[in-house]
Amino acid sequence: MTKIERVGISLEKELLRAFDGLISEQGYQSRSEAIRDLIRQQLSTERLRNDKAVAVAAVVLVYDHHATALMERLTELQHSHFLKTISSMHVHLDRHDCLEVIVLRGKVGEINRMGEKLISIKGVKLGRVNILATEGL
Amino acid sequence: MTKIERVGISLEKELLRAFDGLISEQGYQSRSEAIRDLIRQQLSTERLRNDKAVAVAAVVLVYDHHATALMERLTELQHSHFLKTISSMHVHLDRHDCLEVIVLRGKVGEINRMGEKLISIKGVKLGRVNILATEGL
Amino acid sequence: MTKIERVGISLEKELLRAFDGLISEQGYQSRSEAIRDLIRQQLSTERLRNDKAVAVAAVVLVYDHHATALMERLTELQHSHFLKTISSMHVHLDRHDCLEVIVLRGKVGEINRMGEKLISIKGVKLGRVNILATEGL
Amino acid sequence: MTKIERVGISLEKELLRAFDGLISEQGYQSRSEAIRDLIRQQLSTERLRNDKAVAVAAVVLVYDHHATALMERLTELQHSHFLKTISSMHVHLDRHDCLEVIVLRGKVGEINRMGEKLISIKGVKLGRVNILATEGL
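YS: structure for the whole thing
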């Protein structure tokens, strides 16, 4: 079981009211939940500065599936021995374009480089690498 | 068939050398491909400023699957009538944590709000909304 | 006098310990101060989504001061009637390059466009627009 | 004298037209200038991944000047021996709030930490660290 602690924080009345307004709009049911999310986000960002930290990445690619060599190169890269491709998902956007999400796990530096390699493949139109440090959160 | 145009650009020798070095490291096979990617990235970012533009979003969530109400709420939200959830993928990270990627299509403002709502669900530890404007790229 | 409120939040013991470690490294003297900063950052980001909100911008430019028409164009733009340039600072980086920080106040949409115009001037090598919503924080 | 090279790039007609539209709105007078800026931005971002690279930072702070210990601590930190504070600028925003821009030069890791320290000072409401790698651009 995870141990829960309760801490007190003090803040300006006006700031609190504005925060309450924002998080209720976002859908939060409690202040604690919203503040925990801010804290986790901050910790995750901090950990990603360390190239050796272990993290997961969701690489999002948009590409034209008519680009012939691309699918082959994508598969080849996903079998790279440096890191584990955990999973991937393929979505048909329209007659030409596909969106592919590839989930990687490994060291920050490695999955960043792997993400860049995926984005640089000829035929990939747009790409984004989302790295999240999940340990200890 | 897409029509290809050829344009000339002038740039400092030193800048060109540094760029060539960077893109070869990233895995690009040609300068044109690398510059097209920079241009598409810029156009996509620009279009996302418009709340009414149509785009796709890959929402990445990390959550503890023991959080009971969460799965239910996730499914409920994905059936929201405002926009189309195209697809989703679920990855088991460890005994506690899951990573879920949900692909949405709709107006920038709507999918942003939907992403926030997903992240605010109790039990979701980390989240990221990636919005990509794909039209005309 | 600003009224201060005290609220209680609950969070996992492990998360709290990791947060305490991070903020002490960053130099924070209290948890409240660190959490207030996270909240203000979040509120400021949220407000900037509204093009009509009033904000301040610090536009950072790096340029070669030998570019002749540039200084003239910079000054001309700063006298634009759409918004108030509050102040600017000029720093000599080396024999060629200068860094200039220009502080603007106005509506988010306007100061964004003004920032882009400044960055697009021939001779400006690098630029960054920092918009901060300061009201009610 | 800087040597200029001319290179040819090929891209889709539709993409070119969209790019031309965007950059003319942003104020660019030529495609070459806009593409050079994209390239420099990319190179600068890449270099900042290296903690040891030399860069400049513009740290933007918003604080209430009534916070008594703050000004003292700010000055103290600026005399830190780890790096050179090149310059700073102070702007009065309203009766309470000031905006201060502090320009630092040093290694990426050092000026990042220094920026965090400045933002963590009690009384600082909002802060942003802009790091720019300027060498070879």
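YS: worth flagging: The domain at 54-132 of chain D is CATH 3.30.70.1150 (Alpha-Beta Plaits).
IM: good catch. Also The helical segments of chain D are 13-26, 31-47, 68-78, 108-120.
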